[in-house]
Amino acid sequence: MKAAVLREVGKPLQIEDVQINKPGPREVLIRTAAAGVCHSDLHFVEGSYPHPLPAVLGHESAGVVEAVGSEVRTVKPGDHVITCLSAFCGHCDHCLTGHMSLCVSPETKRGPDDEPRLTTPNGPMMQYLNLSSFAEQMLIHEHACVAIRKDMPLDRAALIGCSVMTGVGAVMHTSSVRPGDTVAVIGCGGVGLSAINGAAIAGAGRIIAIDVVAGKENFARAFGATDFVNAADTDPVKAVTELTKGGVQHSFEVLGLTKTAEQAFDMLRRGGTANIIGMIPVGQSISLTGWAFLGEKRIQGSMMGSNRFPVDMPRLVDMYMAGKLKLDEMISRRVKLEEVNDAFAEMKTGSIARSVIVFDS
Predict the structure, then answer these.
(1) Whole-prediction pTM value?
(2) Pair 260, 277 in one domain
(3) What are the CA-CA distances from residue 252 to residues 43, 62, 63, 139 (Å)?
(4) Are 28 and 89 within one domain?
(5) Parent domain of 101
(6) Are residues 317 and 293 in the same domain?
(7) What is the 3-state secondary structure (H, E, C) of 196-256?
(8) Torsion-angle region of 98 (φ positive above 0: left; ψ -120 to 50: alpha; else: beta)
(9) Which of 139, 163, 193, 282 is least surrounded, with the fewest CB atoms within 10 Å of its CB?
């Protein structure tokens, strides 16, 4: 099969022929239909986060089940599925206490003595975030995908696999936004727009979108923002504090920058919660004003929207089909696998929401 391979940090992905194994007892073979190009992939390309190489990247995807292992019970051949990087075992402490997105059990991966899921003539190929979806096929654990209704367009379903689940989940699960609450979202890319959309669905009273690209305002308002702050020429903390007469109850940082993480905390009102969704590069730290904690301000991380994806993703599909969840507007371009490096370059300009790789059926 064709796949986009990262062989060296800082270098373009290479389109190569990669061999894929047959499903093991708990594994599912999927024909990839679509894969979103996410900023998280770019973090690994640029070396902000380490990963064993060579590896097939990609983690935001949807497709059709081709074959299943002998013990698979959750999906069957012909099912349309959304994948999720937060594969779960189902019986560790995290899973049994309802925090499936935090599961790190090795059971969802092949062991060191097993044949690798992906190989090349020159040796093993590393699987990325349990998925490796920049490829014509995926071989994954059954608890890394969920079946959805077949009338859902798969190019839009792919977005639910990461950016939408992450943004909407952070609002609804991690921070528990309630009707009438005030919200600020720093960064209006795919995850940020999803957080804005999620806040609107949750009934937030004021949703303030923040970005350094003025052209993102129309995007943000289309997804539910009531206000827009251009951080390129305005202090966002001061602007949010003035708009809300004291600060927001919930802030969401999706850029993964030290400065914006600190701003997310500083723009809170007393008792507010800052949610750090963005991937701050390894080795970097943030600095917070200690006295602010006397006002019961909180700062917390959010991993994939604190999801319970086998339940959440079909519900998000239903929200889209009912016209509540905005996915059509998020797709800026549909590209071929061979155009993945161009999609990364365009992403870095900040001028688009999302590119989606669409595979031939």
Answers:
(1) 0.95
(2) yes
(3) 19, 26, 30, 33
(4) yes
(5) 2-162+306-358
(6) no
(7) HHHHHHHCCCEEEEEECCCCHHHHHHHCCCCEEEECCCCCHHHHHHHHHCCCEEEEEECCC
(8) left
(9) 282
Query: What is the tens place of the pLDDT at every residue in 168-216?
Result: 999 999 999 999 999 999 999 999 999 999 999 999 999 999 999 999 9
CB 105 within 8 A of CB 35: no
Tally of domains in the chain:
2
Domain assignment present for 241: yes
Residue reference for tokens 């923040």: 210
Q: Give the model confidence (pLDDT) of 251-308 as tens digits.
A: 999 999 999 999 999 999 999 999 999 999 999 999 998 888 999 999 999 999 999 9
Residue 213 belongs to a domain with what CATH number? 3.40.50.720
Burial group, residue 16, by CB count within 10 angstroms (0-12, 13-18, 19+): middle
The pairs formed by 285-290 with CB atoms below 8 angstroms and a separation of 24 or more are 285/258, 286/258, 286/261, 286/262, 287/262, 288/262
pLDDT in tens, 52-62: 999 999 999 99
Beta-strand (E) ranges in 118-167? 118-120, 123-127, 137-141, 145-148
- Is pLDDT above 60 for 361? no
Classify residue 30 by its DSSP letter: E
